[in-house]
Amino acid sequence: MATRFKSVIALLAAVAVVATAACAGDLPLPTPNIEATVEARVKQEVAAQPTSTPVVVVKEIAPTDTPIPTDTPVRTAAPTTQIPSSIATPYPTATPTTVLTPTPVPTATPTRVATATPTHVPTPTPVSTPTPVPMPTPSITAKQRLISIGFNVPRAVPVSEAGQEYVASLDIPLEYRERFIEVQNNLNTVLGGYPNYVYIAFNPDGTEEDAQPVFDRLAKAKYSRYERGEDTPAELRERCLSSSDPGGKRSPTTNPMSLCIVDLPFIENPLSSDPSVPFEKRYAKMALWLAHEYFHHYQRAHALDRGLTYQTDQRNPTTTVQAPRWWTEGSADTFQNAWYQANWQSLSFLNDPSARDVTMASVSDPYYLWRLRSSIMGTIPEQEKRGNDCSLDWYMTSADAVSTTCDGALVAVPFMAYKSSYKTAWIDIPQDYYALGFWGAVEKHLGLAEQEFYDEYNAFIRSGDPDDEPPVGWAPPKGPISAYADFLQIIPESDESTVRDSYK
User: Fold this and answer.
1) Residue 443 pLDDT level (bands cut at 50, 70, 90)
2) What angle do CA 455, 457, 463 make, to 5 degrees?
């Protein structure tokens, strides 16, 4: 029996050592094997002993597990008298069970790591910032938009199909609308029907109620003068092609148009304050005037988003093709008269032969060249002198591009046609000035840079005698315009065309 107690005590001593080491944290993992080792050893010892007393001891040892009362059993383990208490001591080392609880702690750490990764995964949500689906906005330019509506495409179609409008106060006689439509339809067959051209007629002495269609259209067009206060018939002023957004500030959202606003007195007696002027002459001049203004719209159409003439930023070639005023006006003057002479008979309200000889600002006539030469040479008779004559020291320069100092500057257009052709002056230059700018187009078709052109022009008008006839090619040829300048054959600048811009 003593031998059995000694072995048990030895075993307990070994367990105590292992338990102490486990508490110190040096060997955390072997702890679970203690219980199994003790139980196996006890069973072995009990099996060797025939008496059943130890079995009772083993069974009593198991209940003593309940008082897990700390390490106090370790102290009582000192007296060797009571074996049960010493055997019970290892069982309470269910403290190892406390050691087992840390095992979940490591599993918690991985769980935290796992959730941490998903928490950062939401960062892809910012990647959805490609929602700047506003990508369409940058991809659409002002040029592309104008091209998409056929802004620069000549079409031989009537007013109703061309995107052109006639708007009038309710008290404007219907006959004026009919005359406008007839003239404009004819112009569309020669120049081509370009959209966004709006003719507006109002009666300054009429009521606001009658004028409401006019103001509705001006509001829709965002006409600046209307928005600044010209909002009654009496305050509205006659202005043709003053328009809103003529160029220079055009964007993908703007809708540039040419507004031609005229009042009733002007319509009844165009370009004359003398009511005694015969009917035929009055309406012949009206037709000429309509041709002149619509030619400006044609010029604007081919400038697209760059604008036609010098705009707010006069020296910025990206906002305007920089077409000089002497060319815009001189080209319109020469065209209007050429068109009228070739087409007046087709207008139903001009059936009197007296209408044949009506002209207006015909700068290609020999008279205009004589007048200019006589002015700058000091030979013009006193009775022929006018306030807009050129002075003796006048030389055409780039300053005349913005505002001409004398009418003589307009004669530069017939000079240009003489150096090349009216097709060049009317068609080739507008067809190329979007890409090349005005002077780039002149250099391409005439072989002259800006200063070279002015030098040659100034030398020409000072050469010879004022009474000399203009050279061949100075005036447009007789007959249909399409025979020498076919506007309907224009190849408009398109979005796909090769960029030849010299200004970029």
Assistant:
1) very high
2) 105
pLDDT > 70: percent of the chain: 67
Among the candidates 265, 285, 301, a domain finishes at 301
Q: Is the pLDDT of residue 321 over 50?
A: yes
Of the three residues 249, 279, 301, the one that is the final residue of a domain is 301
What is the separation of C-alpha 484 from the centre of its chain, rounded to a whole number of angstroms?
38
Count CB atoms within 10 A of the CB of residue 82. Answer: 11
Cβ–Cβ under 8 Å, residues 407 and 365: no
Question: CB–CB of 366/448 below 8 Å?
Answer: no
Euclidean distance between CA atoms 145 and 150, whole angstroms: 9
Do both 75 and 176 map to the same domain? no
Which tens digit of pLDDT belongs to each residue from 233-255? Answer: 888 888 888 655 655 567 787 77
CB atoms within 10 A of CB 158: 15
Residue 360 forms part of a structural domain? yes
Number of independent structural domains in the chain: 3
Q: How far apart are CA 297 and CA 419, in angstroms?
A: 25
Q: What is the pLDDT of residues 345-356, one digit of tens each?
A: 999 999 888 888
Q: What are the pLDDT digits (tens) for 130-174?
A: 555 554 444 678 888 899 989 999 999 999 999 999 999 999 999
Provide the CA 313 distance to its chain's centre, in angstroms: 19
**263/401 same-domain check:** no
Residue whose entry in the numeric block shows the structure tokens 């005005």: 438
3-state secondary structure 252-299: CCCCCCEEEEEEHHHHHCCCCCCCCCCHHHHHHHHHHHHHHHHHHHHH
Backbone angles phi, psi at 329, to 5 degrees: -80, -45
What was the pLDDT predicted at 464?
Answer: 87
CA–CA dist 414, 410 (Å, integer): 8
Picking from 470, 479, 292, 478, the residue whose alpha carbon sits closest to that of residue 367 is 470
User: CA 374 to CA 384: how far, in whole Å?
Assistant: 10
65-69 long-range CB contacts below 8 Å, 24 or more apart? 65/91, 65/92, 65/94, 67/92, 68/92, 68/94, 68/95
pLDDT for 189-198, tens place per residue?
Answer: 999 999 999 9
Q: Are strands 258-263 and 239-240 parallel, antiparallel or unpaired?
A: antiparallel
Domain extent, residue 50, equals: 2-100
Task: State the Cα–Cα distance between residues 414 and 192, nearest whole angstrom.
Answer: 23
Neighbours of 90 (CB within 10 A): 25
